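W.,

You were right to be curious about this one. When I first looked at the sequence I had no strong expectations either way, so I just let the prediction run and decided to look at it fresh. Below is the sequence, 177 residues in total, followed by the output.
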Amino acid sequence: MKTIHIEVNDFLAAIIGIAAGVLLVIFPQESLNVITYGIGIISLVYGVLRIISYFRNKSLSPFFAGELFLGIVLVAIGLFSFLNPGGIFAVLPIVLGILVLVEGISKLQRGLMLKNYGYQRWVAATVVAGCIIALGILLIFNPFNALVITMRVLGIVLAADGIAGLWVNFIIKRYYQ
């Protein structure tokens, strides 16, 4: 009986993964909006709970001062998500782009150092660094399209994972029964 329960859970997880993946591929912008509202709701609820926790434990306020600050920040993020749904995801690719760009420059520097040390495959490290730099620049200067592409890639990965899950369950069931 336990085996059947696991198979049903795996089957449902695979179907949900495939469905979510297809939705992300077909409707990337709408998916971003749903995610933004989800972040907004979670942030608002958690922020309000942190603020309540602060006021309930006011006699211990030095120990709970962080609760008030965290609550206010989370409520602000939640409100921002509802007032400007695309705002969070408009800023996120730019921040990630800056981080990726800095990482790429660091890798480029290491690749050139490898050349100076006589490492024969320094070109590969430098080419990879160049690709990382290009990705960082893409995220910074074209954040919307980069985010839509990211959502589609995520959708493809989810769908592929779901299909792989179904296939593995099929193989297991076929060979072990």
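Here's what jumped out at me. The chain has a mean pLDDT of 82. And, maybe more interesting for your project: Residues 143-175 form the longest helix (33 residues).

Coffee later to discuss?

I.
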